[in-house]
Amino acid sequence: xIIFDLKCEPHGHVFEAWFGSSEDYKAQRTRGLVACPICGAxxxxxxxxxxxxGAKAGHSGEVPPEAxxxxxxxxxxxxxxxxxxSEHVGDRFPEEARAIHLGDAEARAIHxxxxxxxxxxxxxxxxxxxxxxxxxxxxxxxx
Length: 143
What we know:
The protein contains four helices and five strands. It has helices at residues 22-30, 65-84, 93-102, 116-124, and strands at 2-8, 14-19, 44-46, 87-90, 110-112. The protein has a three-stranded antiparallel beta sheet. A two-stranded parallel ribbon has the order 4-5. The longest helix is centred in the middle third of the chain and has 20 residues, at 65-84.
């Protein structure tokens, strides 16, 4: 079996698919049997992917717990700084992000909530958004 990262051309969705061989992938694609599982588009190409590299001899490939803890701490500090320097817009996030992108609202850093469908729509429209790594309490929420 071989695993390929594939990307649909119309929307840029990247997904993983398994095939018996490279030839099997080519044959299925030629017959129209390969489609994006997100949008159903049949215009699919191989996406760039990193090769799987085995661990060095004597090295398990596991990250030491201290390194994980330090990385999470750094990520939490970065998120805290981003939240301190952005405006909380709550559930209005999709509308505000779209208005900023279109130039209908003042350009500024914002954060808030969006449903997965709203986030997908914003990305499809080219609005630059990213999820925060850790959950954020809304103002007034208790611990």
